[in-house]
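Model: You mentioned two targets. I'll fold them one after the other.
Researcher: Yes, keep them separate.
Model: Target one:
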Amino acid sequence: MTPQVKENDQVTVQYEGRLENGEVFESSSDSAPMSFRIGEQMVLPSLERALIGMKVGQTRTISIPPEEGYGPRHEELVLNVKRNSFGERELQVGMVIAMNLEREGETHRLPAMITAIEGDEVKVDFNHPLAGQELFYTITVTAIK
């Protein structure tokens, strides 16, 4: 009997993650196949669930809604910050920087992407870059242990 992926198995997969418009946001061809243990939540839980029952060599394409991926976008996490808050640092749109964000009385150091620079205002987005996006993964199981 051919082994199938089950809870606690160590699996190795080739994968490609795409957005609805077809843009590839991550791929094992850019790095290496990914290995992880099912149940340890090293990947999105819906991706783990999709692997259950698959066999070596089998390929599957799944879609992951935002709620099961990186969550919805929150417009309140897009803020305008004064340019002088960054000191002399050279800023560019698309740059990701670590910033402090006050939330519910606590300070968190989080990555933020600069989305616009207009005069002395810099627009920064604390949302995960994939927040609000439906994700499409094509996964191929290459090993089960």
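Model: Target two:
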Amino acid sequence: MAKDHGPSVKNDEQYEALRDEGMSKQKAARIANTPNAGKKGGKAENYEDRTKDELYQQAKKVGIESRSKMNKEELIEALRNN
């Protein structure tokens, strides 16, 4: 059974699994707190298939700094490693 991480983490089991994979506390909590945390997805477009503006908006949503200076490849890299 997953440890209770308090009200700041909605899906404790997923949070622990992500931390075990080496993700930071912040990234693991952000993923575990999504409205559909723990549900299977797979419906999102690949980053390479998105426009630069779509990538920019996603980077803005997750709080990536200096995104306005990034090209498409840099935005993809930042999104994958955030």
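Researcher: Noted. Anything on target two?
Model: Helices lie at 12-20, 25-32, 52-62, 72-81.
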